[in-house]
């Protein structure tokens, strides 16, 4: 099965602490070592990519090894850039004496709940639209489950919101045209900006919904809570036509691990692995063993990557 291997854009999600960032990094390394030009992007505010690769990773593309680049989206920086962009869009649209007050209102709005998320979403859109032609693979290491679901469903929600804004703006322009009574349509830059954003959201939504080029993988470990959270996430994403086809079952006890303690753990784990098979019959399951040591350097990440590569390229 090549459900992950064939995708150009891959979103990796999962509950916190299950090895999601390490799995994302391993997938990216596996692709890069296959000769595929790959970009791995962290949208998780608690970034780990730099620590995993032992290299500086920031909001720009950083080369990590041959064929592999990394990027960590900084919500604070993106929020600031997003707000400056909103101010630029309004340049010349409001009277000069109103500029200071409008900017004050925008700055206040930037501190409201959801502002960072909107900025992050804007950056995600830019990366998909601007980097897709430069890379064979883009792997998104997303934040824990709830945040991932909100982020991935924003194109649909924002599209509906902008439709409403456009409709209201159209009504205002019609009223203004009737008031002037000259029959000429009003040249409205705000309408044009909204229309442009609508088209960008629609383009990204089309890409995300296209199973030929976009895939979703969740990482979990054989324990009760991650299983339940994964099941719920799959159901919620499915309601938005975002099917999760692949699960990475991480930290599975290897057969050679011995001792009475591990034997008891293995019996409990067997029940959870059976539960995973039962609950997720439609997903490709990729088991990754619990390694003897932490994935703390490139050599060990390479072992993880090679294990994943063998599973996904079969």
Would you kindly provide a written description of the structure presented here, covering whatever features stand out?
By secondary structure, the chain is α/β, with parallel strands linked by helices. 55% of the residues lie in helices and 14% in strands. The protein contains ten helices and eight strands. The model has no long low-confidence stretch (mean pLDDT 84). It holds the Pfam family ArsA_ATPase.
Short account of what is shown:
The protein is of the alpha/beta class and 314 residues long. The chain contains 10 helices and 8 strands.
Structural features:
single chain; 314 residues; alpha/beta; Rossmann fold; eight-stranded mixed β-sheet; elongated
Fold topology:
Blueprint: E1 9-14, H1 20-33, E2 38-42, H2 49-53, E3 62-65, E4 68-72, H3 75-89, H4 96-110, H5 115-131, E5 137-141, H6 145-180, H7 189-209, E6 214-220, H8 224-238, E7 246-252, H9 260-279, E8 284-289, H10 298-312
Parallel strand pairs: 1-5, 1-6, 2-4, 2-5, 6-7, 7-8
Antiparallel strand pairs: 3-4
Family: Belongs to the arsA ATPase family.
Protein name: Arsenic-transporting ATPase
GO molecular function, one term: ATP binding
């Amino acid at each position: 099965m090549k459900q992950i291997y064939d995708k150009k854009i891959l979103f990796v999600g999962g509950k916190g602490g299950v090895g999601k960032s390490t799995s994302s990094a391993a997938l990216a390394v596996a692709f890069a070592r296959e000769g595929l030009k790959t970009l791995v992007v962290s949208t998780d505010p608690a970034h780990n990519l730099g620590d995993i690769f032992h290299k500086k990773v920031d909001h720009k593309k950083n080369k990590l090894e041959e064929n592999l680049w990394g990027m960590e989206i900084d919500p604070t920086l993106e929020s600031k850039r997003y707000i400056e962009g909103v101010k630029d869009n309004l340049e010349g649209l409001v009277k000069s004496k109103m500029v200071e007050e409008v900017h004050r209102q925008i700055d206040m709005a930037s501190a409201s709940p959801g502002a960072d998320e909107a900025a992050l979403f804007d950056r995600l859109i830019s990366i998909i639209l601007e980097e897709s032609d430069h890379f064979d693979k883009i792997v998104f290491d997303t934040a824990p489950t709830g945040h991932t679901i909100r982020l991935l469903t924003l194109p649909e929600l924002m599209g509906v919101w902008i439709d409403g804004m456009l409709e209201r703006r159209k009504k205002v322009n019609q009223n203004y045209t009737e008031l002037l009574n000259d029959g000429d349509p009003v040249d409205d830059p705000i309408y044009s900006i909204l229309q442009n954003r609508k088209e960008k959201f629609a383009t990204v939504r089309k890409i995300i919904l296209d199973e030929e080029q976009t895939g979703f993988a969740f990482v979990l470990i054989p324990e009760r809570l991650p299983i339940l959270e994964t099941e719920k996430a799959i159901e919620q994403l499915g309601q938005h036509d975002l099917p999760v086809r692949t699960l990475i079952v991480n930290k599975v006890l290897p057969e050679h691990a011995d001792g009475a303690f591990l034997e008891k753990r293995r019996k409990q784990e067997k029940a959870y692995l059976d539960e995973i098979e039962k609950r997720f019959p439609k997903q490709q399951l990729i088991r990754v063993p619990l390694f003897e040591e932490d994935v703390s350097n490139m050599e060990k990440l390479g072992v993880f990557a090679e294990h994943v590569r063998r599973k996904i390229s079969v």
